[in-house]
């Protein structure tokens, strides 16, 4: 018997695979069952196009048989089979379809995961078997051939016999080693669970002989005796939920699938069932979870959807299907337009997958919009869990996605005392209001007490409260909404005063020019300016900022691990209608030391109001005592 050599590159690949310490060995079964299912697909197609061939549904199935005594696992199918030539061509060369890409990947790294994520087809058998025998009889042929290989050193093909058309693959399961348990691949329950996990939705029955107990004949009554009996069962459910008609399914069905798949332990807030028939054909079941997974806002969280190719699971978490801002979405996609052997690199450039991803993104967006519109309570629950992620989405990638996301944002409103959308805000803006006003702070309660909000509130304008550290960054990325710019209540020009008011202010300011210059010298390096406030009513003092970085942003940037010491350009504003202003004026005329004391005190108070640390708290308390005695 002549022993054929594998082609050189195939040999290397095979060696690597056989020797890889691979944790997901179990996928070999998925690969072989998928091949079997493909072979049945082919005969089915033939039957559809060839009148001479009758396709009788019951005749087509895959059978998995474990024989513990002989340490063999057999996978047989009633598919189209292979001729001698096909055995040679198909199983003698590995560098086909996805495997070439696989090889490239592995020039540099060891690629264990790649085997798990994508099929490498038939050769996966060598991960669990030290000898593989393939006996096949092709359609329209009376003879059969047997292909056999013990791995990298080659294979043989000899004539053989087989009663039916189809293929039978016998895996001689490897003996256990200290590290590795191969026995598990001979265990009925283990095989069942592998089939359920990866091949549940294969359209043809996957049968197995299952051992059960039944009462012995004649032993019924009080003390029945039991005997084992073997019964052939179909392991897979065959019709996947995503292929079912939406009308046939209940909310419970979707919920059950969510839990069966372990997408989450919560109750999903919403499911999205897609059956697309357009440029790309696919089905998807997606879920918006109700609560934040514990690791969601950490680096450990991995986004992605399960990816099936025509009912066969090819990837657990296909990240390319979801944009980061929708990374909370769970679920699966099945498409017959995808190759089973596609590699991660190829996926990124796959036109079909790109189309699916785009389609999915739009569906999620429109579902969230309708949730917002029709089921506000639910949307608010969602927003509580994942709103932060949407805001990150607005801010990241240089604001590329702000248009997609801005209408999904909610902010707490000073008027409504609850969350509102930007659209709600803008649509009820009084005609004379130029800007969308916001105030940033640690909490609603704190913002409510900010002196800086006084003027805008008094004017009757609505203010959005930003309590999330990402809020102001996100809004600065959006810049304007429906032609209205955003304006912080702490920013220099609030755009509220009338010309007459401005004139009056300027006149008063010029009277205190010297005083403010003096105060600014006292605070040199801390504030760039001291000026009369246009926004304060009852409070004597507040801090505002000029330029891009606000005081809130400075706080947030300071708290970040790679503290970049970004400072807001600060301005100390004094309320010239407050009695304190008179005290400042008097001190300025008579007592330089007192002016310095008052200035420091007011500055530190302003810091406290903003929630910023006081540089020297001891000096501050001493200063207070000085005023008291
Ligand atoms: P792939 O399935 O990606 O082509 P495989 O290595 O799994 O790669 O299989 C190589 C080829 O061998 C298949 O394309 C198919 O033509 C043939 N083949 C494998 N298993 C079977 C089978 N059970 N019945 C018929 N043909 C098969």
From TrEMBL:
Residues covered by region (C): 556-629
Annotated SMART domains: HATPase_c (SM00387)
Keywords annotated in UniProt: ATP-binding, Chaperone, Cytoplasm, Nucleotide-binding, Stress response
GO cellular component, one term: cytoplasm
Chief place of localization: cytoplasm
Keyword Calcium applies: no
Residues the record lists as binding ATP: 31, 35, 77, 82, 90, 96-98, 117-122, 167, 344
Domain (Histidine kinase/HSP90-like ATPase) ranges: 24-177
Subcellular location: Cytoplasm
Alphabetized GO MF terms: ATP binding; ATP hydrolysis activity; ATP-dependent protein folding chaperone; unfolded protein binding
Region span, A: 1-344
Record-linked InterPro entries: HATPase_C_sf, HATPase_dom, Heat_shock_protein_90_CS, HSP90_C, Hsp90_fam, Hsp90_N, Ribosomal_Su5_D2-typ_SF
Entry annotated with the keyword Nucleotide-binding: yes
Protein purpose: Molecular chaperone. Has ATPase activity.
Record NCBIfam families: PRK05218.1
Sequence similarity: Belongs to the heat shock protein 90 family.
Subunit comment: Homodimer.
HAMAP family in UniProt: HSP90
Name assigned to this protein: Chaperone protein HtpG
Organism: Paenibacillus montanisoli
Organism ancestry: Bacteria, Bacillati, Bacillota, Bacilli, Bacillales
Gene assigned in the entry: htpG
